[in-house]
Design goal:
With 450 residues, the chain is an alpha/beta fold. It has 3 domains: 32 residues; 209 residues, Rossmann fold; 171 residues, Ribosomal Protein S5, domain 2. The protein has 12 helices and 23 strands. Strands 8-7-9-10-6-11-12-13-14 form a 9-stranded mixed beta sheet, sandwiched between helices. Strands 17-18-16-15-19-22-23 form a 7-stranded mixed beta sheet. A hairpin with a 5-residue loop joins β11 and β12. α8 crosses α9. The longest helix is centred in the middle third of the chain and has 18 residues. The protein is globular. It binds thymidine-5'-diphosphate and magnesium ion (MG).
């Protein structure tokens, strides 16, 4: 029996309900549910339609090896899973000023020089502004066209007229669809525009990059649905005050989401950082107390980072503590563990902890290095420069195993470190020769080593 279904969609989050409600049950916004025309499902009433494509056996389909285009930027190719997949929709999110437009312009230059027809559409900058940026980046020899436009229908026309096969939309929040009355950047506009771009990409086989700004929470502004609609979501992140940038994939229909690309913002655009560990260790002081080296993992890549601590007697009733690059509460917790388990009085000490280079680490594997840096600074003991540490520290002062220990040790060996202090639990799983491994069970053993 055919059944008429009425559905309601939330204008804010795109959530779906079967009945009208005053408040969206998904995003809790008020008065945002719209009724959509009833859909007919099943039953004999639905007329048989001809299918535009005949179903194919999966084994009869072949994938051409060259269905990916290289961006000419190795770090970007890696994150995309080997290059740009033709006809895909790729969302690039990030804070304002982080370098999204610069990265995409560099990518456009590279692919256009390889013979692709590229159209860069900006709703934020004038052509002259884009040209000024381009002059900083270098020469442009390929077939790259610029357009400043925010009306999507005109953009669609321009893509058709120029015959572009790669297009960049900078940014989705400035574009609007004539059919919708909502303001550009509003959720319904973003949904409308993305839907149209999706249709263009899939029907014409055009690859479209969409730039999206992120909200305070770090999501691309607009409904989560935007992320559902596109094939790939990349986030470009970093500290505005530091030069390095990370390109991370949050979703990728054509590759792993574990990859990160590392860049450095220079005077002439973004430069790739193929060896992030060496980059992060630049300028590390030698033979100074309060500075230790840790190994952290970003995606599948190990990074050496320097953890610094400055612990000194406080002049205040309440000691001052700061943590840059890691969680402040975690630092307080680790200091409490040191005080309780090692009997070292820190409650009358100020402590400043810093992950050098502006990286932000949330991995607990950094705990052991933080403890070592605090002890090193407090006691004035220098930690050997050729030693790295990693491990999670628990509340009873135990040092717990971490994931990917072997990868971390291998990276340390590759960079010429001599000793690795790591959780005892990880020792067995590591079969690497040529680097000393010291397994420890608790932070007292760490103190004894120092
Ligand atoms: P931009 O790509 O405009 O950021 P987004 O599109 O993410 O908002 O990057 C702007 C920043 O990058 C700006 O602060 C200037 C800086 N920049 C450089 O340092 N070197 C360069 O060569 C370029 C082009 C920009
Ligand atoms: Mg921009």
């Amino acid at each position: 029996m055919a059944k008429n279904t009425t559905l309601f969609f939330c204008r804010e989050c795109g959530g779906e309900t079967s009945k009208w409600l005053g408040q969206c049950p998904h995003c809790k916004a008020w008065n945002t549910l719209d009724e959509v025309p009833a859909l007919k499902t099943g039953g004999k009433t639905s007329r048989r339609k001809t299918i535009s494509q005949t179903p194919e056996h999966i084994n009869n389909l072949s994938v051409k090896e060259d269905s990916r285009i290289s961006t000419g930027i190795e770090e970007m190719n890696r994150v995309l899973g080997g290059g740009i997949v033709i006809g895909s929709l790729i969302l690039v999110g990030g804070d304002p000023g982080i370098g999204k437009s610069t990265l995409l312009l560099q990518m456009c230059r590279n692919v256009s020089e390889k013979g692709e027809k590229v159209l860069y559409i900006s709703g934020e900058e004038s052509m002259i502004q884009i040209k000024l940026r381009a002059e900083r980046i270098g020469d442009f020899k390929g077939d790259l066209m610029l357009l400043t436009e925010t009306n999507l229908l005109l953009i669609e026309q321009a893509i058709e007229e120029t015959g572009a096969n790669i297009a960049v939309i900078d940014s989705i929040q400035t574009m609007y669809h004539e059919m919708s009355d909502a303001a550009p950047g509003s959720v319904s506009q973003v949904r409308e525009v993305t839907g149209t771009l999706l249709r263009i990409a899939k029907s014409k086989g055009i690859t479209i990059f969409i730039v999206g700004h992120v909200t305070k929470e770090g999501n691309v502004a607009g409904p989560k649905m935007l992320e559902h609609m596109v094939d790939t979501v990349l986030y470009f992140e970093g500290d505005n005050s530091a030069a390095y940038r990370l390109l991370r994939s949050a979703k990728n229909r054509y590759g792993s989401t574990n990859e990160v690309g590392v860049f450095e913002m220079k005077g002439n655009g973004l430069a790739e950082v193929p060896n992030p560990s060496e980059y992060m260790m630049q300028g590390k002081p030698e033979n100074e107390s309060g500075s230790v080296v840790a190994c952290t993992i970003e995606g599948t890549r190990p990074f050496m980072i320097e953890v610094q601590a400055l612990v000194c007697r406080t002049n205040f009733n309440l000691p001052r503590r700061t943590a840059a690059g890691m969680d402040y509460n975690r630092v307080n917790l680790l200091m409490a563990v040191i005080e309780k388990r090692l009997g070292i009085r820190l409650s009358d000490c100020d402590a400043y902890i810093n992950v050098a280079g502006g990286m932000k680490i949330s991995e607990p594997a950094l705990d052991l290095a933080v403890v070592a840096a605090i002890l090193s600074s407090h006691r004035g003991k220098v930690m050997d420069d050729r030693t790295i540490l990693f491990g999670e520290v628990g509340l009873v002062g135990e040092v717990r195993g971490v994931s990917q220990a072997e990868l971390r040790v291998r990276e340390a060996k590759k960079l010429g470190y001599m000793t690795c202090i790591l959780p005892e639990a990880n020792i067995k799983s590591i079969g690497i020769k040529g680097i000393d491994r010291i397994g420890i069970k608790n932070i007292r053993e760490l103190l004894n080593l120092m």
